[in-house]
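ok so for the tutorial part 2 we go from a plain amino acid sequence to predicted structure tokens. step 1 is just haveing the sequence, like this:
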Amino acid sequence: MKKLKNNYLYLMLALFGAAALSILLFFLVSRFDGIQDALSVLQGVWMPFIVGAVIAYLLKPGCNLLEERLNAFSQKRGKGPNRMAGALSIVITLVLAVVVIGVLLVLVVPTLLDSLYAILLQIPDAVEQGKAWLLKYAGDNETLSNYISSLTDSVSTSLPEWLRETVLPNLETLIGGVSSGVSGVVSVVYNLCMGAIVSIYMLADRKTFAVQAKKLSYSIFGQKWSDTILREVRYADRVFGGFINGRLVDSLIIGIICLVFTLIAGTPYAVLVSVLVGVTNIIPFFGPYIGMIPSFLLILMVSPVKAVVFLVFDIVLQQFDGNILGPRILGNVTGLSGFWVLFAILTFGGLFGFVGMLIGVPVFAVIYDVARKLVHRGTAFHREREAERQ
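step 2 — the prediction. this is what the tokens look like for a chain of 390 residues:
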């Protein structure tokens, strides 16, 4: 009788849960526009905290390492743990980050703008050269020749205008903050500045937050489920931290190697090409090709021979990164096969763009790990039930 009552209770709870979820789903669908507006408002309000959380998460490994080294140095001198180690590690990490970003901006941004202006001036000649080459191979085919002429004339007219009126003004607005888009630039600067301040508080209280999260978890879910949740959180932190920081370091090294080679080889637009190769290398799988193709085309406009040399170098560089440098820095932190990496990049990239392509692999790695453990637990449970029945 008691077993029957328990089964009846579980059935009623399941029906109640299904009904509640159905009502919630209907409400979300019927009020979708209002929910989107509310989320947009919340995103605008919380953006400094989101930016601060991202900055703090990226700087956390450096802070932890510096704090450990300062405490170890203090203990070697027989003074015990350094009380100022936490504050000093945060200050040093932030100063180093600001110096590195400032140096990169000062060295790279002016050269990037010069390269873009040079490309803008070079486009008409490059289009004319390409037109002459295509017409040469078109021969006596009048229809094809007319199509080539109209296409190249359209490109030579519209592309420089687009670069001059759209791309360059937006770049100058983003960098200098002087144009019609001042409000957008002010918002970006405000979010970055406030995010940096928020990140300082988050880094200072990171251990307190961890303790509070543990207490909250144990008070709600109990010890068994909380232990499981904390293990997954630690795994997610290890995957995200190892992957994101590893990709950033790996891409920085690849960009520096590319810059050194292109400067020695006298490759046109060396800084622009190196930045393009380094930034796109952050994206797994597709990144190297995304950076290689436009870089090759840019160099091809000036020197076909140097374009071929760059292409060969970039292929060798990517092989070095994929087989030697990348595994040394990243290891196999995600535990995903090539198919699931490709699936994660395409899925999250299609949903969230560049950010999705960057974080898709670690996010899917965590989802995959949770699903794998649930499958194993479900299989073990059914085996135990089968054994009990026998």
